[in-house]
Amino acid sequence: MTAEREQFAPGELAVVLSHYDLGVIDSAKEFTRGSRKSPKLLLRAADRRRYLLKRRAAGRDDPFKVAFAHALLTHLHQRRFPVPALLGTREDQNSMLQFDGRTYELFEYVEGSRYDASLEQTAHAGKTLARFHRAVADFATEWVPPAGGYHDSHLVRHGLNAIPSTASSHDSVIGHEAELLALTQDLHERYDAAADHVNRAGYADWLRTIIHGDWHPGNMLFRNDRVAAVLDLDAAKYQPAVLDVANGMLQFSILRGRTAPSEWPEFFDETRMRRFLLGYLSRRPLEPAQRTIIPQLMVESMIAESVMPIAVTGSFGWLPGFGVLQMVQRKILWLAEAMPHVRTWLLD
Predict the structure, then answer these.
(1) Distance between CA atoms of 187 and 164, rounded to whole angstroms?
(2) Stated pTM of the model
(3) CA–CA gap between residue 332 and residue 184 (Å, rounded)
(4) Of 165, 158, 118, nearest to 275 (Cα)?
(5) Average pLDDT estimate for 313-322
(6) Hey, what domains does the chain have and what are their CATH numbers?
């Protein structure tokens, strides 16, 4: 069952808005994109300006992590990178309002549409990622970014070990417990092998920079085939830039379906995968040694993204965790078969 979307209470909204200098608000409409645990309102002021008010979800409201994300957002905005502008409070221009144990943010609203899977938008997403990496080259802040990442993570391995227990009560698993155990063991071995390959390629010596950490279509708005806004900097951290590139190639080429995961195609859209990379390389170079290990990083990213929520809830959103992991395994097998061919154009 889908969880109900949290909403602002009338009294809560009145108090929060009293801390901002927006003038008369003509309308406030629920904004339903994003996490159901983080209520958002689209506000329209009398001067026709629009704003997005957001209450951070519990667990994503650590003030130090929010402060880091806001410092990065402000830096990017000053560099004219396409991110929403943060508005400060009336009292002290603080970008983070804390009230009654909750954390609020107010942004200028950016008009845009969702990713349409075109090659033009795919290429511009790659170019925009390169622009992001250039824009953060001189970023400095007292706040410490979140730790971790999808590469060689003990949390991912712990999650794989936990899944046979957390997903065992789901209807799709009953009678297939041994299959689930074998599946998680196989994914564990593939994750270890991919991580080892990346480490042997020199990962420890590669330059660290700020990466976005979650570069996928859902975190972007598009307008006229160009990225109009990049959203959600909560996963930003210090890592080699190639981790963003590999995850972007994965996210912009993966093919999903509207039906059960068992019916999703096992292959990727290789044309979009390549177009994303070419977009990135047209704006920023990437060492050959890093390009060659992108398929292994894609394997790590795909496993990590699916494992973490399934390890906690047994499901991936509304999808049964067992079916999602089977789909991930099929896609990894396809990627393994295509790897020699993919490596050829990775070095073109």
Answers:
(1) 12
(2) 0.94
(3) 13
(4) 118
(5) 87
(6) 10-108 (3.30.200.20), 119-346 (3.90.1200.10)
